[in-house]
Structure formats: structure tokens, C-alpha cells
């Protein structure tokens, strides 16, 4: 399995937050103590501690990690070594780092790379991991004015992401696609429908169609992705708006989206019925 620096960063940040909260210290108190211990008054601030706990840092020195562990009273050698190792692994770069010009932080791709299971609901578009190159190009171009080189870079990285579905240790991937997204596939892009049948035949991939006949439902307002990771990392929910990304990690939030997904999945056509429906759409185009 790919070791994702993004997941390591998330794990270390979560552990640092847990240790501080267990110690009863505020971020300001931690920063003041870190200044004293490090001998670098300008090297620490409460905002630095908060950024570290949110995973909003670029590189983290193992010396800084050890200072925090000293403040939190962590003496267990194994835990100290594990946290230091996480810091080193978090500073590495995944393949997606070379596409930071079109991906930004690449956080979603980094999490996706090490997920054990990915469940997605899409209300208006074919999920990125299931898109053909032509469909991806049409989707990206439709978002507005895009230079040719930027367009090609975005298409390229989207195709590279799809390699996780064919790895030896590929995650289980389950997609529920609203009928509206399929109806928007034009005759010129009909290969996209054929591709859904092809990729949906893989043992680790499931595709279900949510038909209009289901009527109003709880997920109508937008798409979301639920990612499950190897222990000890908890699941995460990814939400995408027009210009921003949101990650939900609190247990009540995760549970709510898991319930929504289960509800929508129960309403959707079965896998076999969905394949028949897609074949029907292909026939209508020809």
C-alpha cells in the first residue's frame, strides 16, 4: 500500500492535539514553554501550535516534536520514536506534489491514496476516479477559461489518480451516481458510459444509479466522499464546494454521513439494475 505523507501528517496532528488537551494546557501556554525549552523566542507562538494541530504546516522538525512531547510529559520511548517517525514521513512528498500547480495542497489525493475503502455520492457529475480522459477534459473546460497547458495538467493528474483502482492492494470503491449525472453525458461522450460498465466489472468497484423515480432524498444538495483508513486512523468525509474543500473528522459528523450514504444506497438501483440502466442509455445514444 502507498504510504501517504498526508495521512501521516493527519495522524501526527491529531496525536499532538490529543496530548495537549489531555495535559490541560492552552496553545499559548505550550508555546511559552516551548520558547523556554528551545531557547528560540521567535520560533514558537500559539498560532504555530494551532497550525500544527490542524495539519497546516509544510515541514516539521523532529526537534520540535520532541519538545512538545517533553511538555506533555510523554516518556514512553516507543511513542516518542513513533511520533518522530511520523514527522519524518510527513515531510516526504507523494507523487501528487509535482502537480501542486493544479492541485494546491493535494490533501484529498493524499488521503485517497491510502484509503482502504472509498464511498462516494455524486449528484451532477461522474466521479473523478471513473472518468474517461475526454469526459474529464470536457468537465474541466466547462469550469471556465482554462489555458491549454493547465487543462492538460488537470486531466493528466486525474488519470493518474485512477491507478489506485488497479493496484494490487486497491481499495474498495463504491459509487452512487445520480441519474442526472448520467443524463448529462452527451452522445459525443458516450464512451464514458461504456467505461462505467468496464470499470464496474472489477471486483473492488461497485456502481449504483440513483434514479429520478426515487424522488426527493437527503443527499440532493450535493456530493460527498467517505474515506476509511487502516487503523488507527479514523474515517474522513470530504465535501467540495465551488471554490473550497472541507474535511469532516468528528465522530458525529462521520456517523451522519454514513447514515446518509446507507439511506441513499438503499434507494438506488442494484448493481445489476444499474448496469442495465447504463446499457439502456448507451443504446439511446446510438
From TrEMBL:
Q: Which Pfam families match?
A: DUF5753, HTH_31
Give the superkingdom in one word: Bacteria
InterPro entries, per database record? DUF5753 (IPR043917), Lambda_DNA-bd_dom_sf (IPR010982)
Point out the signal peptide segment.
Answer: none
Q: Which residues does the UniProt record annotate as the domain DUF5753?
A: 107-280
Record-given protein name: Helix-turn-helix transcriptional regulator
Organism from which the protein derives: Lipingzhangella rawalii
Amino acid at each position: 500500500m502507498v504510504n501517504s505523507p498526508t495521512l501521516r501528517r493527519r495522524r501526527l496532528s491529531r496525536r499532538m492535539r490529543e496530548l495537549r488537551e489531555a495535559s490541560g494546557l492552552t496553545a499559548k501556554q505550550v508555546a511559552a514553554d516551548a520558547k523556554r525549552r528551545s531557547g528560540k523566542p521567535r520560533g514558537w507562538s500559539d498560532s504555530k501550535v494551532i497550525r500544527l494541530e490542524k495539519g497546516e504546516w509544510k515541514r516539521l522538525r523532529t526537534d520540535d516534536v520532541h519538545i512538545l512531547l517533553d511538555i506533555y510529559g510523554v516518556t514512553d520511548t516507543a511513542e516518542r520514536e513513533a511520533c518522530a517517525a511520523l514527522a519524518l514521513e510527513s515531510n516526504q512528498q507523494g507523487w501528487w506534489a509535482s502537480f501542486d500547480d493544479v492541485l494546491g495542497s493535494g490533501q484529498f489525493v493524499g488521503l485517497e491514496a491510502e484509503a482502504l475503502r472509498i464511498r462516494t455520492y455524486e449528484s451532477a457529475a461522474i466521479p473523478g476516479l471513473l472518468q474517461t480522459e475526454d469526459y474529464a477534459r470536457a468537465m474541466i473546460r466547462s469550469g471556465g477559461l482554462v489555458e491549454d497547458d493547465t487543462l492538460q495538467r488537470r486531466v493528466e493528474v486525474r488519470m493518474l489518480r485512477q491507478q489506485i483502482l488497479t493496484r494490487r492492494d486497491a481499495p474498495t470503491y463504491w459509487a452512487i451516481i445520480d441519474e442526472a449525472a448520467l443524463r448529462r453525458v452527451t452522445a459525443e461522450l458516450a464512451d464514458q458510459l461504456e467505461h462505467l460498465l468496464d470499470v464496474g466489472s472489477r471486483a473492488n468497484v461497485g456502481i449504483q444509479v440513483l434514479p429520478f423515480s426515487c424522488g426527493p432524498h437527503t443527499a440532493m444538495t450535493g456530493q460527498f466522499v467517505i474515506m476509511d483508513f487502516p487503523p488507527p486512523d479514523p474515517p474522513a468525509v470530504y465535501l467540495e464546494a465551488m471554490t473550497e474543500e472541507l474535511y469532516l473528522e468528528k465522530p458525529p459528523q462521520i456517523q451522519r454521513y454514513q447514515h446518509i450514504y446507507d439511506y441513499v444506497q438503499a434507494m438506488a438501483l442494484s448493481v445489476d439494475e444499474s448496469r442495465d440502466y447504463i446499457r439502456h442509455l448507451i443504446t439511446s445514444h446510438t
